[in-house]
Amino acid sequence: MSDFKIKSGFAQMLKGGVIMDVVTPEQAIIAEKAGACAVMALEKIPADMRKTGSVCRMSDPKMIKEIMESVTIPVMAKVRIGHFVEAQILETLEVDCIDESEVLTPADWTHHIDKKKFKTLFVCGAKNLGEALRRINEGAAMIRTKGEAGTGDVSEAVKHINQITREIESLKDLSTSELEIRAAEYRVPVDLLKEVASKRCLPVVNFAAGGVATPADAALLMQLGCDGVFVGSGIFKSSNPEKLAKAIVEATTNYNDPQKLLEVSKDLGDLMPGISIGSIPTKPGHSSDNNKRLSEIGW
Amino acid sequence: MKNIIIGVLALQGAYIEHVNFLNTCIADGDYGINGFDITVIEVRTSKELQKCNALVIPGGESTSMSLIARRVGIFDDLIAFVHDKNKVIWGTCAGLIFLAKKIDNVDHNADILDTLKLVDVSILRNAFGRQSQSFIKSCDFSSFINDCDDYETVFIRAPVINKILDPGTVKILYSLEYEKESGEVDNLIVAAKQNDNVLITSFHPELSDDFRFHKYFIEDFVLK
């Protein structure tokens, strides 16, 4: 057994749970009391990052530390894609999990972090199977859909989980030589792809993320096969965060029970207004324009 | 044929792993020869709970599990179930926290972490520290599992049993020698049983590539 088991096992303990973005210790406490299984400590939630158009970096470690001291559930924090020094800093701070995130401005447009070099586990975003497997091959112990962070539009997360499911399903009829071709196409070792083909699922936990705003959104992604849910801007951009946070936790537990989903969907106040995905132009690559799709960052 | 149902509490955490491990042991164990027909089910509701002869409470986040149990309305039935001496119970990691009578380091969230108060022990949550202090260690469990002297034991943000409150009913199964940063060696209780029907472990046998612990639970607890 390897150290990888300590990393992937941590992610397994989060399954069936909700991980919430928080910007203050007070919000972290609200999240914990609502039943969140972890929090993501951030200076700004993605919905606000979208508006600024400035470079988004790792949050102030002092603020992350304050959140770590305010709750007993695990605390995660984000680093820029490829910024292994931000990751070294967060590892030294002893955050429980590092998110190498497309929501921040990438530090390296060619390489993701070599995550195997770290004792801390990483979660990474993916919009298809190849991307998920490249991240796992680099050492990620947990995957999440990219979705489209900060929009409140769930459709991209739905697209990404369906894409991954479909691509895993398509492996089952492939011969060894076809698997080799597919592995080369994905730029991953064939053994990793063979493992996915035989287990018919990713070798690590896969959460939903990006655009989840309601209990029904969370249940939708669970029914589509996600192991749990990240909720970013949705909760603290609504008029009653305590109530919405609890409702999303309950919807994630009872994702297959429409009666329970009906109960928790009622009277939640004003939800995050959101931005529909269709209103954001596709503009891949390096752009300082804040009006762009974050899911196109990373490769 | 005696029908036996083992439930795995499926509110949050690593419950599928327990279901799969138990099913592998059952497929391998040939218990039918001795007249037992064992089934494993996931438990989310009181109705499912009432069918069970035994219950496994898995690892996960103990605060989430406790809060969710209250909100889905299964908490009071769980208390009644685990306190029934005819039922067999096993808690791993967060499951151990959820079964403990007392938590010594509750600090601010005493109000959100209600436990089922079954096992007469007091525990320390996250006793080793944060995730960066999680570890794997080979342990010798041969004093209670035949020939099991090399079990790869996974500790993830693990609790430990700090004190045994009733030595008359709770017996230590295993203490871990743990070297602290200061170099001092502590003996930490990580596995125990209460009477003959309750098993608690602070580690995760459902993450080892080893089925012996689940086999021990079935043979020494469920079928006894």
TrEMBL record, chain A:
Active site per database record: 78 (schiff-base intermediate with d-ribose 5-phosphate)
InterPro entries on file: Aldolase_TIM (IPR013785), PdxS/SNZ (IPR001852), PdxS/SNZ_N (IPR033755), RibuloseP-bd_barrel (IPR011060)
GO biological process terms on file: amino acid metabolic process; pyridoxal phosphate biosynthetic process; pyridoxine biosynthetic process
An example molecular function term from Gene Ontology annotations: pyridoxal 5'-phosphate synthase (glutamine hydrolysing) activity
Keywords, ordered alphabetically: Lyase, Pyridoxal phosphate, Schiff base
Pathway, per record: Cofactor biosynthesis; pyridoxal 5'-phosphate biosynthesis
Annotated Basic and acidic residues bias: 289-299
Group of enzyme by EC: lyase
Catalytic activity annotation: aldehydo-D-ribose 5-phosphate + D-glyceraldehyde 3-phosphate + L-glutamine = pyridoxal 5'-phosphate + L-glutamate + phosphate + 3 H2O + H(+)
Region (Disordered) location: 277-299
Domain PdxS/SNZ N-terminal: 4-209
EC number: 4.3.3.6
Cited SUPFAM superfamilies: Ribulose-phoshate binding barrel (SSF51366)
Keyword tRNA processing on entry: no
Similarity annotation: Belongs to the PdxS/SNZ family.
Role according to the record: Catalyzes the formation of pyridoxal 5'-phosphate from ribose 5-phosphate (RBP), glyceraldehyde 3-phosphate (G3P) and ammonia. The ammonia is provided by a SNO isoform. Can also use ribulose 5-phosphate and dihydroxyacetone phosphate as substrates, resulting from enzyme-catalyzed isomerization of RBP and G3P, respectively.
PANTHER family from the UniProt entry: PYRIDOXAL 5'-PHOSPHATE SYNTHASE SUBUNIT SNZ1-RELATED
Record's protein name: pyridoxal 5'-phosphate synthase (glutamine hydrolyzing)
Organism encoding this protein: Tetrapisispora phaffii (strain ATCC 24235 / CBS 4417 / NBRC 1672 / NRRL Y-8282 / UCD 70-5)
Organism placement in taxonomy: Eukaryota, Fungi, Dikarya, Ascomycota, Saccharomycotina
Annotated gene: TPHA0G03060
From TrEMBL, chain B:
Cytoplasm among keywords: no
Keyword Hydrolase appears in the UniProt entry: yes
GO terms for biological process, alphabetical: pyridoxal phosphate biosynthetic process; pyridoxine metabolic process
Binding positions (L-glutamine): 60-62, 125, 156-157
EC number: 3.5.1.2
CDD domains cross-referenced by the UniProt entry: GATase1_PB
Active site: 93 (nucleophile), 204 (charge relay system), 206 (charge relay system)
Catalytic activity: L-glutamine + H2O = L-glutamate + NH4(+)
MF term (GO), any: glutaminase activity
One Gene Ontology cellular component: glutaminase complex
Keywords: Glutamine amidotransferase, Hydrolase, Lyase
NCBIfam families hit by this protein: PLP_synth_Pdx2
Family note: Belongs to the glutaminase PdxT/SNO family.
UniProt xrefs under PANTHER family: PYRIDOXAL 5'-PHOSPHATE SYNTHASE SUBUNIT SNO, PYRIDOXAL 5'-PHOSPHATE SYNTHASE SUBUNIT SNO1-RELATED
Name of the featured protein: glutaminase
Top-level taxonomy: Eukaryota, Fungi, Dikarya, Ascomycota, Saccharomycotina
Gene (name only): TPHA0G03070
